[in-house]
């Protein structure tokens, strides 16, 4: 026989649930036992989790204390709460700014670095494009790089003859090295510097007009 009920077989009809509509609200109440069980389980879970967190924290702190060694005047903990909040005053900020300017290099960058690179290139340009003393006592002078290039083009570089002692043995299929002129001198202005140069050129043209 089939286990499922056939539509042709008679089946028992359930008695309809009688609802008293005269009350105007649901007559059945929520089971309080289910809510109590849920709240109890939630409370137990919270307590167990808190105990585990405290225990794990104590274990980690004890291991860190063992790794740090005994407490000395150099590694003793300081309660910063006694210091209070730092007062926000313009005078204090001004003193801090002056102290930061006097602080020896290297200092933390106060911008994204573009201005510092521009200042460094400006200092380099002063040395590369002007005459300056290298050692006034010995009478040595720095000359502009353009003049130095002209002198090198006229006189050439001093070539030191290579002796047989310093010459490396020639291996099979070795070729003599050929020195080619580089395509660039390895120096390039940053985008920030190019923008500053373009702005200065624009200001000069406007001043001439």
Describe the structure.
With 209 residues, the chain is mainly alpha-helical. Among the domains are: 31-72; 112-156, no CATH class. Helix content is 45%, strand content 3%. The protein has 5 helices and 2 strands. The chain has helices at 32-68, 90-102, 114-129, 145-155, 191-208; strands at residues 132-135, 140-142. It has a two-stranded antiparallel sheet. The radius of gyration is 43 Å and the shape is elongated. The N and C termini lie far apart (110 Å).
Structure class: mainly alpha
Shape type: elongated
Give a count of the beta strands, DSSP E runs of length 2 or more. Answer: 2
Count the DSSP helices: 5
Helix-strand blueprint:
Blueprint (H helix, E strand, L loop, with lengths): L31 H37 L21 H13 L11 H16 L2 E4 L4 E3 L2 H11 L35 H18 L1
Quick recap:
The chain is mostly helical and 209 residues long. The protein has helices at residues 32-68, 90-102, 114-129, 145-155, 191-208, and strands at 132-135, 140-142.
Which terms would index this structure?
209 residues, mainly alpha, 5 helices, 2 strands, single chain
């Amino acid at each position: 026989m089939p286990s499922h009920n056939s539509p042709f077989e008679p089946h028992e009809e359930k008695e309809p649930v009688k609802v008293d509509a005269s009350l105007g609200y649901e007559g059945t109440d929520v089971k309080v036992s289910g809510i109590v069980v849920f709240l109890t389980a939630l409370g137990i879970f919270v307590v167990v989790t808190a105990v585990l967190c405290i225990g794990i924290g104590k274990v980690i702190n004890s291991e860190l204390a063992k790794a740090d060694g005994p407490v000395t005047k150099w590694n003793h903990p300081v309660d910063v709460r006694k210091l209070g909040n730092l007062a926000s005053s313009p005078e204090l900020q001004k003193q801090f700014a002056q102290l930061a300017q006097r602080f020896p290099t290297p200092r933390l960058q106060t911008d994204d670095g573009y201005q510092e690179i521009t200042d460094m290139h400006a200092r380099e340009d002063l040395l590369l494009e002007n005459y300056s003393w290298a050692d006034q006592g010995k009478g040595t002078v720095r000359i502009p790089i353009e003049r130095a290039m002209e002198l090198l083009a006229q006189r050439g570089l001093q070539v030191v003859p290579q002796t047989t002692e310093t010459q490396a043995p020639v291996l099979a299929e070795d070729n003599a090295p050929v020195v080619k002129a580089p395509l660039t001198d390895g120096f390039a202005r940053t985008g920030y510097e190019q923008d500053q140069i373009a702005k200065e050129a624009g200001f000069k043209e406007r001043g001439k007009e």
